[in-house]
Specification:
Length: about 575
């Protein structure tokens, strides 16, 4: 679908873009009302939920951002622990967090609520873009409403996109870029017909998407691929690529140069260390027999990270029904593949499909996540594509079955839409209920953080794996020992296998960690604990039992340890 703009300058162009978001039709009023109602529900939830429950929505990595942003705001450097400079974060999101902690950082809980509510607003704006994107693709308004609602409040999307990390901002810039692309770069036009102004704007939006999450670099690659596959001459292709790439370079080069000159690499330390873990995992495969190897691969390809990972109880309770639904969907897709392909083609989702495909290849190679895990907050493009695909399947299903339900007449589509929306809202309501009743999964971290805050001095140094919550709530200098939010220097210590030398050098006072094991056996890690045994003296140890979400029906033993670390013993 082509949208032509005739503006005398950038201001006119922006005005024209804003006009497209005017809510003027009945269908637009419906989706706006749903967005407002869902936003109020989410904001109320974040305001009223006790902090112990609220933390179940976040991830430990969320607090890597929060503690680092607070340190920056308080003049303690770009650092998680106040000692080591780090770049293990997504830059644009960190930039937005710093003012919040500058204004409200004296309170531990208030900034969390403010940030989560801010993410609701970002996601609401993204939902409007998703809706408008679908309308441009000539899907029916009922379908666009379903797609938008799935994106906004589908359970895994809520807890992955609005979890305090960069996901909501990433989604907004990704959809801004996609929306701008489909309105300015019509499929029937050649790149020579597109104004340089629009190419520059596409480059700026793509650059901002990259800064919101560095995986966005593959969106740049996606647009290069589309240009190279066009019917332009080689000269015109090169000219288009250069025109789009110059604003990308202007936006991203300052950040990349800071990475290179301060940290010795263009990529952040978090990505480099995850790649290192993946390679170490691969090196451990030689001892596996064929059955174990097959089992590891099979488990990694199972997609509970995409849909059921947050509430794994649902997976176990509903698995038979889920399998039936998957089989039905596959049958429908095969039977109606031409209709589905036609509607997806109208939507112009090819750039998004290419982008998601490149991301999957990247995760399976560079991070080799066949044997490692990754966070659902990394799957924003996958979630958007899933929402669109589900909506298209919904529309095709309604079109194909309207004769079976002819007695509903013209109301059939409305009835199907209402029932689907009720199902989506019910799924969201289930989240609220489960979060208000389930065991506090983050209680273990909070207890350790409280003990450290009450029993250590402000100048003490504490080492911790999964250090986010402990570092934030203990209000102590906590060094991240898995390295994601630490320095390149510490990364070298990890690679050389002499982490204790690093801790000795800094004269660390305590080591804090939580361990989760099923069954009654006491914790005994034959790796680092035996190696460090002479340096560790338990000063706080708590063991509790609970049924963990990840082990339905299995009693889980939770160990909370704080060790005094004897750095003077060699």
């Amino acid at each position: 679908m082509s949208v032509t703009y005739h503006g005398s300058g950038w201001l006119d162009n922006i005005r024209e873009l804003l006009k497209e978001f005017n809510i003027i039709t009945r269908g637009d009023q419906i989706i706006l009302s749903l967005i407002v109602l869902c936003s109020i529900a989410l904001i109320s939830w974040y305001l009223l939920l006790p902090i112990e429950k609220l933390l179940n929505i976040t991830n430990d990595d969320t607090f890597y951002y929060f503690k680092t942003a607070k340190n920056i705001a308080y003049g303690n450097g770009v650092s998680f622990d106040g000692i080591n400079q780090t770049n293990g974060f997504q830059p644009l999101w960190m930039l937005l967090l710093v003012p919040i902690f500058y204004l409200f950082g004296s309170d531990l809980v208030l900034p969390i609520r403010i940030i989560l509510m801010f993410q609701v607003l970002l996601t609401a704006l993204t939902t409007i873009l998703v809706y408008k994107f679908c309308i441009l693709g000539r899907v029916k308004k009922h379908t666009a409403i379903v797609i938008s609602l799935i994106w906004f409040i589908y359970p895994i999307h809520v807890v992955s996109v609005m979890c305090g990390q960069e996901s909501a901002l990433y989604a907004l810039f990704l959809m801004l870029t996609m929306y701008f692309y489909v309105t300015r770069f019509d499929k029937s036009q050649s790149f020579t017909q597109i104004s340089n102004k629009n190419k520059v704007m596409l480059g700026l939006l793509t650059g901002l998407t990259f800064l919101s999450r560095l995986d966005g670099v593959f969106l740049i690659l996606t647009f290069w691929i589309l240009i190279l596959l066009s019917a332009e001459s080689a000269k015109e292709k090169l000219k288009a690529i250069v025109t789009i790439s110059i604003p990308i370079a202007i936006v991203t080069l300052p950040y990349l140069m800071w990475n290179y000159f301060v940290f010795g690499a263009l990529t952040p330390i978090s990505g480099r260390i995850k790649h290192y873990w993946a390679m170490v995992t691969i090196s451990d495969l030689s001892g596996l027999n064929s059955f174990d190897l097959f089992h590891r691969v099979g488990c990694s390809l199972y997609f509970d990270n995409c849909i059921f990972s947050t509430f794994k109880v649902i997976k176990h309770v509903c698995m038979p029904l889920f399998i039936v639904l998957v089989v039905m969907v596959l049958v429908f897709v095969l039977a109606w593949r031409k209709d589905i392909t036609s509607k997806l083609n109208d939507l112009n989702v090819l750039p998004l499909v290419i982008f998601v495909f490149i991301l999957v290849v990247f995760y399976k190679t560079y991070y080799f996540d066949v044997f490692t895990t990754f966070g659902t907050w990394q799957l924003v493009p996958h979630f958007i594509l899933f929402s669109i695909f589900f909506g298209v399947l919904f529309e095709v299903f309604v079109d194909k079955t309207k004769e079976l339900f002819h007695f509903f007449g013209e109301s059939y589509r409305s009835i199907a839409t209402i029932l689907t929306c009720v199902l989506i809202v019910s799924s969201f309501a289930a989240i609220i209920y489960m979060q208000s009743t389930q065991i506090d999964a983050k209680e273990d971290y909070l207890n350790n953080a409280q003990w450290l805050r009450e029993n250590t001095n402000k100048n003490d140094l504490i080492g911790a794996w999964e250090a986010g919550i402990i570092g934030y709530f203990s209000e102590r200098r906590v060094i991240n020992l898995d390295g994601l939010i630490n320095s390149p220097e510490y990364f070298e210590y990890i690679k050389n296998g002499n982490v204790t030398d690093y801790l000795d050098k800094l004269k660390v006072d305590y080591i804090s960690e939580n361990y989760y094991l099923p069954g009654p056996e006491p914790y005994d890690d034959n790796g680092w604990k035996k190696q460090w045994d002479k340096k560790l003296n338990v000063v706080n140890s708590t063991i509790t039992y609970r049924s963990a979400l990840g082990h339905w029906g299995i009693k889980m033993r939770v160990h909370r340890y704080v060790w005094e670390y004897k750095w003077w013993i060699k």
